[in-house]
Amino acid sequence: TLRYITIKSKKSIDSLWYGLWRVDPKKTVYVVEGPIDSYFLDNCVAMVGASSYKSIPSHLKNSKLVFVMDNEPRNVQVVNYNRELIKMGHKVMIWPENIQEKDLNDLAYRISTRKIQRVVDDNTTDGLEAELKLKEWKKV
Question: How far, in Å, CA of 102 to CA of 71, rounded?
C-alpha cells in the first residue's frame, strides 16, 4: 500500500486544503478527505485532515460545497464529521450500499471517473434527507 506524508510549513487555513489553486469557486466545489481522491472529481479540493471542514478557506465561503467523506460507516469520527456537516447546512455524499470501496481512489480501480462523478452526484443530499440516509448508512 502506498502512503504519502503531508508537511505543513505554515499554519494558515489555506495550507490545510489541497488543490485550492485549481478550483473555480463559482461552480460546485467537491471536498474530499485525501489529496489523491481530489483527482477523481471535477472541481475538487481535499482537506488535509478531515477536521479542516471547520475552517473553510475564505475564497470558498460563498461556494456551493459538497463534502465526500470516506466510505467508513464503522468509523465513529467519519460518521460524526458527516453529522456535523449536515448540521452546518452543507451537502454531503452518503455512500450507497452497493459500493464497498473505502474512498474514491479505491473506487477508481473499478469504474471510470465519469461514473465516479455520477455516483457522487446521485448520492449527494442535505437536510433531513441527509440525516435519514446517514442513519441508514452508519454502522456504529
Answer: 5
Per-residue pLDDT of the chain (140 residues; tens, 9 = 90+): 545 444 444 554 445 899 999 999 999 999 999 999 999 999 999 998 766 778 899 989 999 999 999 999 999 999 999 999 999 999 999 999 999 999 999 999 999 999 999 999 999 999 999 999 999 999 99
CA gap 46, 19 in Å, rounded: 7
